[in-house]
Every structure is written in C-alpha cells, then in structure tokens.
Design a protein that fits this description.
304 residues; mainly alpha; two-stranded antiparallel ribbon; 68% helix; 2 strands
C-alpha cells in the first residue's frame, strides 16, 4: 500500500495588510452611516428633545407622520421636484455635452468649465443670487417678465403657487452642469468607428443622436435618474436659504421639514420618524427604478 497518510490542513491565512487597507472605510461606514441610521430608527420610537428626557411612545410618531398634512405637502413637492428637475437637467445636459464634444472644435475645456462652475459654487451663494433675481420690482427676472406683459410686482418666492418653481429654476441652473459632465464622460466611451459609419451612411444629426448617442448612453441616463431622485429628496440648503419652506409650507421639502421639526420645534423623535419615512420612500423609488430600468452596466458584470 502506498502512503495514504492524510495531510493536515494548514492554518487559515489572513491577509492582514488587506484588512488594514479597508479598515478606514469600514470604520467610516460603521460610525458615520450605519450608526446614525440605527440611532435615528431607535430614537423615532421615543418622544424627546434631549437625550436625558426620552419617553417611549412606540409607533405613535409614525402614525402622526401619516396624519400630518404638511408631510404630504413635502411628498407632493418632492414629486414635482423630481419630475421637473431630473428630465430638464438631463436633456439640457445631454445637448450641452453633444454640442461641446461634437460640434465645437476649439475651447472645449473653457465651455465645460463655464457650465460646470455653478455645480461647485456654494449653494448658499446660488440661493442668495437667485433670490435677488426673483425679487419683485428690482429683480432682473421679474424685470424681463414685465417686458412680456407679466406684472413686475409678482413675488415669485412669496406666492404659494409659484414659490416651489422659483426654487426649481435655481436648482436646474445649479445642477445642469453635473448632467453635462456625466454625458461628456459617457460620450468619450462611444467608439469613433460607430460615429464614422453613421456619417458615411448619410445619417442626419437627429438620427445620429437618436440611434447612436441616446442608446449608447443608456447607463448614464439611468445613473442620472437614480442620483436625481435621491438628490431631490435630500434638498435642503437651497430651499432653506431661498424660502425657508414657505410661504405656508408651499415650498417645503422633507429636509427642511425635518430640520424645522427637530431643531426649531424641538420634536426630535418626530423628526427622526420623518427621516425614516423619507429614507424608506427613497429606497422604494430606487428599488422600482433598479427593477424596472436597471442601474447601469456594472450590474451585469457578474453575469457575463
């Protein structure tokens, strides 16, 4: 008989340097992402203004959320914000990227910088400037509106029916440059031979856009949709500076209402419940998008 002695399994080796490299990211996730979510979820079951005076109320805060008319106003405003800003920014950003990358021969870097500049500008500065531009009488926008027959006394940010749209206009101006840069990056991945083939076949510019650029940038469309939905629900600085959520909550968004409930009204438990409901709303929208449209090519890498 040959040697049939069983080999003893060796000790399991751990890649200590690898674990040390990922340790900062793990700690950041645990302390700055996971812990705040768990704490907010736990504290939403209490009525409190300070950590020393916490009274357990169970799901009473959540019942109150769904009975709160202002909360439903914030949800309605969020939907309006999403269905207006996301497509307008995407379409405008797409055509800006197409013109800069495919139709302009010189100074591309300058144009990219000019249109991207609002993205890196402080949101407070953007809000103040647009607030001044939308003022009645002396605002530059109301001045030009008066030239086409609209009353220059119109207080866009002070009227319940128009306040949210004034903020939306400022947001579109601020973030369209981000969509443009995303599309610029996507267009750089389109093979040149595909573009040349379309030109040889005599494709018009519109057909070139419709049959080459739009399908080839599908993953960019989906990414912008996901980021736009999540970003809309996180809107705070622009609204807080321009209108404070007013008048009469007409421009209130989840972020400003959570801040008002927690820090102004000192109802931290209720603010925590609002935060969890908003988080779940964003999660549901994201799941619907991923299931319905997909989330980009990176989702398929493991299937190939």
């Amino acid at each position: 008989m040959g040697n049939t002695a069983l080999k003893k399994p060796g000790k399991r080796k751990y890649n200590i340097p690898g674990y040390l490299f990922i340790l900062p990211s793990v700690l950041f996730f645990l302390f700055y992402i996971l812990y705040p979510i768990v704490f907010v979820g736990w504290s939403s079951l209490y009525e409190w203004s300070t950590l020393k005076n916490m009274v357990f109320v169970g799901f009473e805060n959540y019942t109150r959320v769904f009975q709160d008319d202002v909360f439903w106003i914030t949800m309605k405003n969020s939907v309006i914000w999403i269905v207006t800003t996301v497509p307008i920014q995407a379409v405008t950003g797409f055509f800006l990227a197409y013109i800069i990358e495919e139709r302009i021969r010189k100074g591309k870097g300058l144009y990219r910088t000019v249109f991207f500049l609002p993205v890196v500008t402080s949101v407070v500065v953007v809000a103040i400037v647009w607030g001044k531009m939308l003022q009645p009488y002396q605002g530059i926008i109301t001045h030009y509106l008066s030239m086409i027959g609209i009353d220059s006394q119109l207080n866009i940010l002070g009227t319940t029916s128009t306040a949210i749209f004034g903020c939306i206009l400022a947001n579109i101006w601020e973030w369209t440059g981000w969509s443009m840069i995303m599309y610029v990056a996507g267009m750089s991945q389109i093979p040149e031979d595909m573009k040349e083939a379309a030109k040889i076949d005599g494709a018009t510019r519109w057909k070139e856009i419709r049959y080459i650029y739009i399908p080839a940038l599908a993953s960019t469309h989906k990414s912008l949709l996901m980021l736009g939905v999540i970003g809309s629900l996180q809107t705070f600085g622009l609204i807080y500076t321009m209108t404070g959520g007013g008048p009469n909550h007409a421009s209130e968004m989840p972020g400003t209402y959570i801040f008002q409930s927690g820090f102004t009204n000192q109802q931290m438990g209720y603010a925590s419940a609002l935060s969890i409901v908003t988080l779940l709303f964003a999660l549901v929208l994201t799941i619907i998008q991923v299931k319905g449209l997909g989330a980009g090519d990176f989702m398929k890498k493991g299937e190939e």
